[in-house]
Design goal:
Structural class: alpha/beta
Largest sheet: 5 strands, mixed
Strand order of the largest sheet: 2-1-3-4-5
Radius of gyration: 17 Å
Number of helices: 4
Strand content: 15-25%
């Protein structure tokens, strides 16, 4: 008997964890997840976009437009920041897998934490000032960026366990 050949690559595995984490987000428009990994492939942080601990997601706004304090923007912690804050060790030389290319605020947190690689799926805000600032800071600080191009379009997870 030979080993299974349809197992996940490391990139698929870690991006899958980031996307699974995004499923915890209660944001009605945008769900983003992040997964931080050491050089030897150990997960040391997970996060998703949501309000800070103790801030009710039923009492604060989820709107994208309106007066600043009537929108989600002053309140939401992004997935990257949550993964950094939830991390279990020093993040020097780690990689962060994230569904959406980081904004300039998250880029600063990534750089300050010592993470050396950003692996992302979507760059839907490419060309915006925030995106340009992130890319410039990553370039100046030596943080590598890599957009993932995966052959698999989906990973199906079932709670019906097979093979056990």
């Amino acid at each position: 008997m030979k080993k299974r050949e349809d197992y996940l690559s490391w990139d698929e595995y870690f991006m899958g964890m980031a996307l699974m984490s995004a499923k915890r987000s209660k944001d009605p428009q945008t769900q983003v997840g992040a997964c931080i990994v050491t050089e030897d492939k150990k997960v040391v942080g997970l996060g998703y976009n949501g309000f800070p601990l103790g801030c009710s997601d039923d009492e604060l706004p989820w709107d994208r437009e309106g007066d600043f304090l009537e929108t989600k923007y002053p309140f939401v912690c992004h997935a990257e920041l949550n993964a950094i804050l939830n991390s279990t060790k020093d993040l020097k030389a780690c990689s962060i897998y994230v569904a959406l290319f980081p904004c300039h605020e998250c880029a600063k947190a990534i750089i300050q934490s010592g993470i050396k690689e950003v692996v992302y799926l979507s760059d839907k805000y490419d060309g915006t000032n925030s995106n340009k600032a992130s890319k410039l800071m990553f370039e100046k600080s030596g943080v590598r960026i890599r957009q993932l191009k995966l052959e698999k379009k989906e990973i199906v997870i079932s709670f019906e366990v097979e093979g056990i």
